[in-house]
Amino acid sequence: MGFGDLKSPAGLQVLNDYLADKSYIEGYVPSQADVAVFEAVSGPPPADLCHALRWYNHIMSYEKEKASLPGVKKALGKYGPADVEDTTGSGATDSKDDDDIDLFGSDDEEESEEAKRLREERLAQYESKKAKKPALVAKSSILLDVKPWDDETDMAKLEECVRSIQADGLVWGSSKLVPVGYGIKKLQIQCVVEDDKVGTDMLEEQITAFEDYVQSMDVAAFNKI
Questions:
Q1: Would you give the DSSP letter of residue 20?
Q2: Where is the stretch described as Disordered (predicted)?
Q3: Burial tier of 174 (Cβ tally within 10 Å: 0-12, 13-18, 19+)
């Protein structure tokens, strides 16, 4: 078992293929198996190895909790595809390149100041990227039916009253008058709302408050965006 040489492109490709249908090296939660393999990787895999890079960034976020992760750390040859042999470190030299710095730090030897500085710098960059990622805003498209009292209601004024309702997270869209019978027409108007800021109950309360023009309000269609 193994991943070949995890410090080489070929080894990273094996790791990427192995993680194509897995979240972790073993099981369904981060463990010492992930720590062992992470420590053997020189740095972030290239962007085209999306599965390996996703796993790498996720495990890096557990840097402070690595000692508490479940399981027992084993040799690299105990993990990975059964038909691949572990050769990581077989071609190792005395090079002090940044790529050979263990981001987690070694359990067997004292971490150098340079390795510590680089690890903390990379972790800070990763946390900064996570913080800058915009949060998804849940929105809905709502079609409202606003019914007047009778055929003498000023529908232009009714629509003006409806559109006068302003709120953070509310955007009014197109509208039209739809016949309902006996010469009466209802206002059908579209709006887009941010779900955590504007609800249908609030819209109904404010629209029906124009009681001189509005008899009732119904939700004709409601779709998540």
A1: G
A2: 80-116
A3: exposed
